[in-house]
């Protein structure tokens, strides 16, 4: 039996949005994966170093996938529920979790780490990344690219022409170089997202809070109803995410 609009609203509102695990969306939404396999690349790199820092680790889900971690492994996170979740997940692996605001400075000494990693950081402070890397150390990350999921964002917020250039990989590579890093690899891709019901939309907008700032079901109920009717009439809502892999090295 197909769930009613009201039932879908309730399901989306009641879902647990802590951490950075999106398995609740199974059967409700799909997203293509980038071709380079970030978690695998991260794990391979971690096996080769003596010290690592994962910035904005979320609930630690991606970092926990590494088959091997270095002797000194640290992760930072700012959102208190995620700090607790990451601590529970990562401490048994010997990874220390540090509660830290997503703004400079990072609470570590100069040249402290061989490797800095991050998956989908909300903010990128290149000078701080360069500062905490040892000479010869690397920053390996997967970033969200420009105009990612803007079909959904603009459905709720209207056209956002000023924001479409944000997070462009060329701009980020230039900023990395300005901080003294050598960009040794930069790859980008555009991926298809299919969303099958408004409960998934609500879950996403509650979890990824910067997509539609101040989102609540009550505030956007009219748009949610329009989106529900559109999905019922036309099928899945289609959006596109953009991602880029960046590998930058601090010169020896």
TrEMBL record:
> What does the record list as GO biological process?
methylation
Report keywords, A-Z: Methyltransferase, Transferase
Record domain Methyltransferase type: where: 53-140
Q: Which GO terms describe its molecular function?
A: S-adenosylmethionine-dependent methyltransferase activity
Q: What Pfam family is a match, any one?
A: Methyltransf_11
Q: Does the keyword Transferase apply?
A: yes
State what protein this is by name: SAM-dependent methyltransferase
> Taxonomic lineage per UniProt?
Bacteria, Bacillati, Actinomycetota, Actinomycetes, Micrococcales
């Amino acid at each position: 039996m197909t769930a009613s609009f009201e039932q879908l609203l309730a399901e989306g509102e009641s879902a647990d949005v802590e951490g950075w695990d999106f398995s609740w969306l199974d059967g409700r939404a799909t997203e293509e994966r980038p071709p380079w396999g970030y978690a695998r690349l991260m794990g391979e790199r971690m096996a080769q170093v003596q010290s690592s820092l994962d910035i904005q680790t979320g609930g630690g889900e991606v970092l926990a996938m590494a088959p091997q971690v270095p002797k000194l492994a640290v992760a930072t996170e700012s959102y208190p529920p995620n700090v607790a979740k990451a601590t529970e997940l990562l401490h048994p692996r010997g990874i220390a979790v540090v509660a830290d605001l997503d703004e400079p400075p990072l609470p570590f000494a100069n040249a402290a780490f061989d490797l800095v990693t991050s998956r989908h950081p909300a903010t990128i402070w290149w000078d701080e990344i360069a500062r905490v890397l040892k000479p010869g150390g690397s920053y390996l990350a997967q970033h969200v690219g420009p105009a990612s999921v803007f079909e959904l964002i603009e459905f709720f917020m209207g056209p956002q022409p000023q924001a479409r250039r944000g997070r462009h990989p060329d701009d980020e590579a230039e900023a990395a170089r300005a901080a003294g890093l050598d960009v040794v690899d930069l790859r980008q891709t555009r991926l298809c997202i299919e969303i099958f019901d408004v409960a998934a939309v609500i879950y996403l907008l509650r979890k990824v809070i910067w997509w539609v700032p101040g989102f609540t079901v009550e505030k956007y109920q009219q748009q949610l109803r329009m989106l529900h009717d559109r999905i019922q009439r036309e099928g899945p809502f289609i959006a596109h995410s953009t991602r880029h892999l960046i590998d930058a090295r601090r010169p020896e």
